[in-house]
Amino acid sequence: MRLLKLIPDNTNIGFVRLRYWAFGLTALLSIAALASVLVYRLNLGVDFVGGLMIEEKFASEPSLDKLRGSIERLNLGEVRLQQFGDPKTVSIRLPAPESNDKAAAQTVVRQVQAAIDREFPGARFSKQDVVSGKVSNELIWRGALAVLAAVLGIGLFAILRFEWQFGVSTVVAIVHDVLMTLGFFAITQWEVDLNIVAAVLTIIGYSINDKIVIDDRIRENMRRYRKMDMREIIDLSVNETLPRTVMTSLTILLALISLLFFGGHVLRGFTAAMVLGVFVGTYSSIYVSSSLLITLGLRAEPEQTAKANPIAGAERVSPRG
Q1: Containing H/E element for 83?
Q2: Local structure of 240: helix, strand or coil
Q3: What is the percent of the chain with per-residue pLDDT over 70, rounded to a whole number?
Q4: Per-residue pLDDT tens for 117-167?
Q5: 208-233 residue pLDDT tens
C-alpha cells in the first residue's frame, strides 16, 4: 500500500527569497496586534479583574438593554454584559461582594436570578465564579511571569543547544506568535481567563517544537555541506522538514476544529487560540525564525574551523546526494 504523501519528495521551495516580504508582513502584523491590545484592551475575565460572574441561558435572544436595566435596579454596582458562545447565553459580570464569604455571593446570585425571572421567563442559571481583587492581581502577575519565563527559557535553551542566533530568532518568532494571539482576543473581545493563558503556553510549546526540529536540521546540514551558501542550507533544511511540519499541523488542526465546533462554549476561547497558534506558529517557523538566521549573520562554517581543517572545508556534497 502506498504511503500518503502531502509533500512530494522532490519539493524545492525557495523560502529564503521571500524573507524580506515575510519580515515586513511579520512586523506589520505584530504592530497591528500590539495596537489592537492598546486600543481595544483585553476583555479580562473574573480570574484577572476580580468580581462575580454569572452565566445565564435564555429561552430566546434577550435584549441586553432590558437585561442591564433590570439588574441595575438592584444597585449591585456596575453591570457588564457579554453574549457568550451563542446569542442566548449571556455572561453577567458584577463587582465582588464586600464580604468574601460564599453566603454573600449566593445572596447576590439569588437577587439577580429573581430579577431575571421576572423579566425573562424560562431563563436558567448556568454557573457562577467569584474571585477577590487580591487573588485576581496575583493571577495576573503569575500568568504574565509564566509566559515571560517560558519565552526566556526557550531562548536560553536554543542558545545553549545551538548558537546565539538560533536563540534570538526563536524568541522573535515566539513573541510574534504571542502578540498575534493577544491581538486576536483584543479585536474579538472574547474573554481572557486562565484557560487562555494555558492556551498561550501551549502555543509556545507547539511553536518551539516545530522550530527546534527545523533548527536541528539546519545545524546538521551546516556540518554536512560546509561550503554551501547559507541560503541554500536553510531552503534545503526547511524543505526536508516540510512534510513533517505540514502533517503535524494538519493532524492537530483536525482535532482542534472538531473541539471548536463540538466542545461547547466553555472551551471555545481556548480552542480558537490554539487554532490560531498552529497557523501563526507554522508560518513563523518556516518564514521568520529560519530566515532570520541569515540576517543575524549565521554562517555554515566558522573561519577558525575552515583554517584548522582546510581539506574538510573544501568538501562539498550535492544537497540531494
Answers
A1: strand 80-83
A2: helix
A3: 81
A4: 888 877 777 776 666 555 556 667 777 787 788 778 877 877 777 778 888
A5: 888 888 888 888 888 888 778 888 88
Instruction: Give 6-37 as a DSSP string.
Output: SS-TT-----GGGHHHHHHHHHHHHHHHHHHH
CB atoms within 10 A of CB 185: 25
Q: What are phi and psi of 94, to 5 degrees?
A: -130, 160
Among 19-28, 155-164, 195-204, which stretch is predicted with the lowest mean pLDDT? 155-164
β-pairing verdict for 191-192 and 124-131 = unpaired
Q: How would you write 30-82 as a 3-class SS string?
A: HHHHHHHHHHHCCEECHHHHCEEEEEEECCCCCCHHHHHHHHHCCCCCCCEEE
Query: Is the sign of the CA dihedral 204, 21, 161, 318 positive or negative?
Result: positive
Beta-strand pair 80-83/89-94: antiparallel
Distance of alpha carbon 253 from alpha carbon 249, whole angstroms: 6
Cell numbers standing for residue 191: 474573554
Query: Smallest Cα–Cα separation from 291: which of 25, 6, 56, 78?
Result: 25
Nearest to 133 by CA among 76, 82, 177, 95: 95
C-alpha to C-alpha distances, 73 to 76, 77, 79, 89, 95, nearest whole angstrom: 8, 10, 10, 21, 15
